[in-house]
Amino acid sequence: MSKIKFILNGNAVELDVVPTMRLLDVLRNNLGLTGPKEGCGEGECGACSVLVDHQLVNSCIMPAGNVAGHEVITIEGFNKQSRYKKLADTFARAGAVQCGFCTPGMILAAEALLNEVPHPDEQQIRQAISGNLCRCTGYSMIVKAIKMAAEEGGGLW
Amino acid sequence: MIACDIGKPVRKVDNDIKLSGQAQYIADFHVDGILYAKTIRSSCPRGKIKKIDMPVLPNGYFAVTADDIPGKNSIKFLIDDWPFLAKDKVNYFGEAILLLVGPDRAKLLELADKVHIGYEKIPAILTIEDALSGNFVPIFGQNNKFAVYDYEKGNVDEAFSKAVKIIREKYATGYQKQAYLENQGMIAVPEKDGKVSVYGSMQCPYYIKNALVQALAVDEKKVRIVQAFTGGGFGGKEDYPSLLAGHAAFAALKTQHPVAVLYEREEDTAYTTRRHPAEITLETALDGEGRILGMKADINLNGGAYAGISEVVLQRSIYNICGVYNIKNLRVTGAAVATNTVPNGAFRGFGAPQVIFAIEMHMESLAKAFSIDVLTYKKMHIVKQGDRTATNGIFYDEVKLPAMIEKAQRMSGYTAKRKTYQAKPKLHKGIGMSLFLHGCGFTGSGERDIIKAQLKLCKQKNSSKVEIFAANVDMGQGLQTSFRKIAAKALEIPITDVLFAYPDTERVPDSGPTVASRSIMIVGKLLQKAAEKLKKRWQEDNDIEIIQNYEAPQRIKWMGEKSEGDAYPAYSWGVNVVEVKVDPLTYEVSVLGTWSVFDVGQAIDERIVEGQAQGGIFQGLGYAAMEVMTNDDNGRSRQNNLTNYTIPTSMDFAPVENHLLKTYYEDGPFGAKGVGELTLLGAAPAYASAVAQAMNIHVAKLPVTPEYIMREAEQNE
User: Fold this and answer.
1) Which residues constitute the domain of residue B620?
2) Which of A110, B136, B245, B622 makes a 20 to 30 Å CA pair with B428?
3) Keyword annotations for this protein (chain A) (predicted)?
């Protein structure tokens, strides 16, 4: 066990955990944040996506110790921001949500992209979500949602 | 209020809870005092269990075996041969033998390593060929077949005696894993007086309830099933969840603690049901102009180790073998065979994708043999309104295929591209078109004789709210929204005044399973009828409860024993076009474009249907191109995660351009027919046809991997 301090969804947290624990388990089990999902447990599907210093990360393959001193944002923190509200709106209008299991990860993948590239082209969007698997939608309606958010987001990103 | 056009999209009612990460899937449930169950599985494909060496279990840890099952140790299907937990013998690698149950999941893994099971091995049947060889002791019955079918229409022998040419071909299709993003999971909670409540990821609450009533040997009041948010199903959560629910319930009742059975990806991929591999032989008698006089079809499905629902899957295969073509003289034989492999089960399309692939590719071969353009050849044979189905039923409704084909041609530029790519083989480009249909709802008289769906609609006194009580689930396909829309439209009330909770068997009647593209067409129609009745009674000053029972449409006639009559009440239709370029060095395929036209009657929500089209076609392309699943010499799956079982990413295929035809089906709500399964059926044959053109090969196998293309192309040289 060791003490790990980091910023989680805007708040400082200090935890006593084994630093090699998966960040996903710490978030879900120690902190009760179930927005990040476990789909594969090996960094393949992206359902466990979170932002670490605004980079998209698979929390199922990141040791909790690695976030010491860094900033972590999960869907629970991001869903209070105006950028989320825009993405949620365009995801709804584009029909980008089906079973919902990949959705929090997709939203964060979109945020990570738009934060870097406010006006991405289709190929950049497809690339940005290529680490997030979705079995329901065939992706095009998600791509469209992200494109719409970029177009309508005026100043948000 | 729903505007006059019901197809106009509305915001899905569950968008916000899913987008914000607040939707609670089963692994997200927090239950005090919960224990976890780890499944100990067979490491032998076929054998007798000789001994089980158990570690000493620490305090608070338990083992659950077949001896802890109070009732019948088999999952309730048409044939009850699949044990919840193997007792004396095992029939596949990975079969569940016992459960270790306790509070710490890491400790359970440690203990699991210390369970040693000894087997007396029996030679295992691993393939369809083994199963039919007669060289092995049967797994099931005398002939090792879970089901055998044989039917004939017209006079096949006479047709073959008149034939100028006879063409016989073999086709084979592989496994496909549903690969929903949320793995299977159930939590069972023991209640007072021996009752158990089970929460989980599922498509069919009442299948699970009925399975548990039988396995626990209890009164039906003692079992309650509640659906949690379900992260995709695609058929994979039709049959298998009954096994998980059983495991969770046995453990909960034994330990008197809540027990969670939560599969990880490895377990889910390697040991839960998949699409049946198929071997299909088609033999066709033709006249001098290439017209089909008659056809003989033989279909063998690999059912795996236990019968499960293989018989019903086989029915859909054998009754859809003609695809969209009018074949007047037809003899079909089919079997679902037993092998010592993971039992196969439901997957979107349910026995149809295999045969639609075979018939579509066979039609190409027939056209080629007579040097006729393939689309022209197909159009010579497509069915029209009033024609007979494979089982001598009737296509009652207008068949709009000609208009759909034309639309698909315009969208894709099919005709010009097909010509160009034929003339310029060095481009290694191809474009393929598939034509297909899907029989909506259960096969045969299943709705009338087995399911007998019932739906309830209620309005409380002095309330403007209406509540739908139905057992059908939303697993992502949008039923929470579509059902509310149907009720709101019929009652002319705002959609926000319609309530529809996730099914809980203590609250909802058995409106049947969420399968077979039946929820909208069958149960949605019950809902519309109930809503129309409620509307007439709207002013009554008391609680109103409308019960609506299924009644088969008058025109439908089915004689099951003879496989004769209307196997389906209605058909949805599709045309897909896929354009590809093949790298002649690596044989990798790039999909340049995909186009689709569907006739699903009236869409209840065009955006939801578009989502089904997009997603279904991608699953179909995965089936066609990349989803490889094979077994080793122990019948053990070589694929057990999303790294070695690859499903499409956002980068793999070009976007789909889709068009919906507007038609009206009188026995569906506001004219709607089935949607979900249809959308998967056409991608594989269209893709295969495109690859075949690009490389000048014949494609007779799914998936069409680069290795397969290479072998076929090299044979050509």
Assistant:
1) 278-443+564-715
2) B622
3) 2Fe-2S, Iron, Iron-sulfur, Metal-binding, Oxidoreductase
Tally of domains within chain A: 2
ipTM of this complex prediction, to 2 decimal places = 0.99
User: How far apart, in whole angstroms, are the C-alpha atoms of residue B498 and residue B491?
Assistant: 10
Residue B557 lies in a domain: no
For residue A157, is it within any domain? no
Task: Note the pLDDT tens digit of each residue in B644-653.
Answer: 999 999 999 9
Q: Do B476 and A136 touch (CB under 8 A)?
A: yes
The label of the residue with tokens 């079909």 reads B332
Range of the domain at A6: 2-75
Residue A16 maps to a domain: yes
Q: Decide which of B231, B262, B293 is a domain's last residue.
A: B262
What was the pLDDT predicted at B3?
Answer: 45
Interface test with B, best of A140, A141, A143, A148 (most B CBs within 10 A): A140
Q: How many CB atoms lie within 10 A of CB B522?
A: 27
Distance in angstroms (rounded) separating the CA atoms of residues A31 and A11: 13
Question: What does the pLDDT look like over B154-204, one tens digit per residue?
Answer: 999 999 999 999 999 999 999 999 999 999 999 999 999 999 999 999 999
The per-residue pLDDT for A154 is 86
Mean pLDDT of B421-436: 98
Residue A32 and residue A63 share a domain: yes
Q: Do B231 and A129 touch (CB under 8 A)?
A: no
**Which of these three, B216, B233, B262, is where a domain ends?**
B262
Give the distance from residue A1's alpha carbon to the nearest chain B alpha carbon, in angstroms: 17
Which of A136, A141, A143, A144 best tests the B interface by mutation, with the highest count of B CBs <10 A? A136
Total number of domains in chain B: 3
Asked whether residue B298 falls in the same domain as residue B408, the answer is: yes
CA-based nearest residue in chain B for residue A46: B181
Using a CB-CB distance cutoff of 8 angstroms, which residues of chain B are in contact with residue A47? 181
Dist. CA B354–CA B680, nearest whole Å? 11
Contacts with B264 from chain A: Cβ below 8 Å: 38, 41
